[in-house]
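Worked Example 4.2. Consider the chain below.
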Amino acid sequence: MIIREGNFSVWMPLETISQEIETVETAAGEVKFRIIATHPPSSRFVIAYSEELDATLQENPVELLERAQERIISQEGKANIFELTGEENLTLDGYVGKNFTIKN
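Applying the procedure from the previous section yields the following structure tokens:
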């Protein structure tokens, strides 16, 4: 799948595709994430990305990714409807990222 707006490509199962926008609050302000997901049977594969952040929001990217992960796991504040089963921190061209697996 090629994400032209984010200028990247990713391999993920191509089934029904959905798009959403989620806002994550941080100490430095809010960040809007674009979310693209595919929905194969009994699964959901999600890619989330944001526009380039200003310097204040880039000061603690790990915190930002942790908050985004918490938001996905708790589904907008509901008490953990998913269980985190694995996670990996990533770095690509100096940008940090996070890969994690959840189940319900």
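The helical segments are 55-58, 61-74. The CA atoms of residues 62 and 96 lie 7 Å apart. Compare this with Example 4.1 before moving on.
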